[in-house]
Design brief:
Elements: H1 8-23, E1 32-36, H2 43-59, E2 63-67, H3 74-81, E3 89-94, H4 95-104, E4 116-126, E5 128-132, H5 140-149, E6 155-158, H6 164-176, E7 181-184, H7 188-197, E8 202-205, H8 207-215, E9 219-224, E10 249-257, H9 262-276, H10 279-287, E11 291-292, H11 297-318
Parallel strand pairs: 1-2, 1-3, 6-7, 6-8
Antiparallel strand pairs: 3-10, 4-10, 4-11, 5-8, 5-9
Helix pairs in contact: 2-9, 4-11
């Protein structure tokens, strides 16, 4: 005998119960993953952990930092781009991910303009040039002279090929007329440790990553990289004071996979802006030499587009090629 069929009158109520139950789940109803394109100790990692802590306290769900260092952020961006667009995967996006690499590589495994939705910019900062404390250079002119007197003997560390630190180092080589050798690392943290150990002599990185080492006397800061002095490091001159035309900075923000529902993007933006504007968060960010932002999705998206064009123009005008 054939088994009796369940009538629609029986099935429909059960389907409605399950669908309503799924819709009724509030966001967020489970932990959120924040993918950070850096090793422990770098600027994205420090900002990411600070933000994750405050957001976890506010939303009642844990925000878990997932460090994915390597390839100047390509690995992290690829993972985030392929994640479900449900609000449970966030990317700490960086200048390298959204502005530098798209101008340098044609074979990226992600599309910076199409694969992500901007949520909010967290902070921005001019970088700082730091050297090993044993290096016989206490100023940019002295560093340039040392590099010219001993071509090819100075190594500069970076957070990876195609990172802002890499571009910054190549800009310095070009505009100062020197040739320092690039040594890439999987993040700013490992690069700074090797700088302290003396395996590299120079590094241009964010004041967030270098700050504790600067205050602890483990590295010596010579200058900052913006067009004007960094308000968080007012005693340091700019590189442009000695190397005309030199200027580079970087920013960090949160993005989500394209297709993430607008209401979730708005909720995330509200939480991020709230966290960034907490007095203790603003104080901690400012003390690093960075400036907290916390803007709207449209504002961050417009900023990304401008930076991609601006740095692309810098790369084209200077003829910088990241061959390695």
């Amino acid at each position: 005998m054939r088994a009796p069929r369940l009538g629609m009158a029986v099935l429909v109520p059960w389907l409605l119960i399950f669908s309503v139950g799924a819709i009724a789940q509030p966001y967020p109803s489970k932990p959120i993953r924040l993918i950070v394109p850096d090793a422990t100790g770098g600027s994205p990692d420090q900002l990411g952990r600070l933000l994750a802590q405050k957001m976890s306290e506010s939303i009642g769900q844990q925000v878990i930092v997932d460090n994915r260092a390597g390839a100047a952020g390509v690995l992290a961006a690829e993972i985030a781009a392929k994640a479900p667009p449900d609000g449970y995967t966030l990317l700490m996006t960086t200048t390298s991910i959204y502005a530098i690499l798209p101008n340098l590589r044609k074979n990226l495994p992600y599309d910076a303009a199409k694969d992500f939705v901007a949520v909010s910019r967290i902070a921005t900062a001019s970088n700082v040039l730091v050297v090993n404390t044993s290096l016989a250079a206490n100023s940019i002119p002295e560093l340039v002279k040392l590099a010219k007197d001993s071509p090819g003997t100075l190594n500069y560390a970076s957070a990876g090929i195609g990172s802002p630190a890499h571009l910054a180092g190549e800009m310095f080589n070009l505009l100062a007329g020197v040739k320092m050798t690039h040594i890439p690392y999987k993040g700013a943290g490992p690069g700074l440790l090797d700088l302290i150990a003396g395996n590299a002599q120079v590094m241009i990185t964010s004041p967030i990553a270098a700050g504790a080492h600067m205050s602890g006397g483990r590295v010596r800061a010579l200058a900052t990289t913006g067009a004007e002095r960094n308000p968080g490091l007012p005693d340091l001159p700019t590189i442009a004071d000695a190397v005309p035309g030199y200027e580079i900075s970087q920013s960090w923000g949160i993005a989500v996979p394209a297709g993430t529902p607008p209401d979730i993007v708005r909720r995330l933006n509200d939480e991020i802006v709230k966290a960034i504007n907490l007095p203790d968060v603003k104080e901690r960010v400012l003390k690093t030499g960075a400036v907290p932002v916390g803007d709207a999705p449209a504002a961050f998206d417009a900023f990304i587009a401008r930076e991609r064009e601006r740095l692309g123009e810098v790369i084209r005008k200077t003829g910088i090629v990241l061959a390695d």
